[in-house]
Fold each of these.
Amino acid sequence: MSETSFCPITNWSEDDKPREKLMLKGKSVLSDAELIAILIGSGSRNESAVDLSKRILASVNHNLNALGKLSIAQLMNFKGIGEAKAISIIAAMELGRRRRSEDAVELTKITSSKAVFEVMQPIIGELPHEEFWVLFLNNSNKILFKTQLSKGGMTGTMVDVRIVFKIAFEQNATAIILTHNHPSGKLQASDADIQITKKIKTAGQQLDIPVLDHIIITETGYYSFADEGIF
């Protein structure tokens, strides 16, 4: 942006200044760039905070999930973003992620595979490694407890079937749902996924604690064994 075309936010009308706009019209009318501009407070000598925010968003194709994955160092590569501003952006993105996670906790009754996705995506959907979780349900299909059973690398993870049902008995669960994430984004069950599912399902049948589904979670979607007829 040239110096002749630059107009600092202080010279904008009251209706257009992000802070004032939020106070006068409410938070929902602000663009993503305007909200980020409030976070960082100021731009550089030749670029407003809003224009700087637009430039940052453009670098991640205006995807807030992608913005949330940027490191402090990556954000500081943008002229006008120092360590303090980078930390403010990262803190805000993390608060948003945690809020989604808390909202999902309110959805305690599992009525579909999508409901499982809504609960688990904020927890494991954006991780760079695999995690295997189990949801323990009562006879109303409400979540009594959920826990991580194992954590692996990019290629996979291992699950101890005995621990799954030990926890199920401790929680007085009447059914369980298996779930894990695919960091690759691939929505397809591997042979290992199918084998561990069969192993746990067989044990559940013997112990009268049925496995209702196994759901693979990615950042944007899910794959349900039950929906796909694998069960």
Note: Strands lie at 131-137, 143-151, 175-181, 211-217, 222-224.
Amino acid sequence: MPEISESYDPTAYPPVAVTVDLVLMTVSDGQLGVLLQRRCQEPFAGCLALPGSFVGPDEDLDTATHRVLAEKVGLSGAWLEQLYSFGDPARDPRMRIISISYFALLPVDRLKAAVTGRNDLTLVPVCAHEKPLAFDHDAIVDLARARLQGKLAYTPVALALLPDQFTLRDLQEVHEAILATRLNKPAFRRRMLDSGWIEGTGEKESAGAFRPAELFRQTHCDRSQGKAAGPQMRTSD
């Protein structure tokens, strides 16, 4: 790195801070849910917000996001993707703060286990969370939901919300929760089977409320490199 001239004065520039905010989503009881945290300090003490943190002087953005996931939620190994940068000068009353938002996906069992016993964390439906959230976090949640809905058409991102083995019924229920609409069952199953994203295990689920169905798993392709998979899913009549 080139040396900085002695005449350079950093105080001549306005101070700017950077934070990361985490939109951690799952599907619970047929609805897309988001994890929120009750703030214990100002600004917006007592309000719900996305888990987040200032980025440390020696951290890159991904490292800071993984730290938030570990320290504030107690989890690791989630599916993570950078979402968007939010830089409205008035978004934070403390100073000029730019937020780099990420969204993460986890199966509901893992996320509920992290929430259990925590008074500050709550898992709520995206469509019915307490409003307004602190800062501009409502806009961040809305964008994360729209991004997730858009990715369903060309990536196997929904598989991040399922256990290692699942039925086609499970997979359709996750898609329906994300899209907030019913899907045509034959068309959906045909699309998933033709996508190359999943493969049969040769096993069936344990007896339950439904007739035992075949179990599937994700193929070995990289989850982040989903391919376009034929026709779009149709909603049911």
Note: The first strand starts at residue 17 and ends at 28.
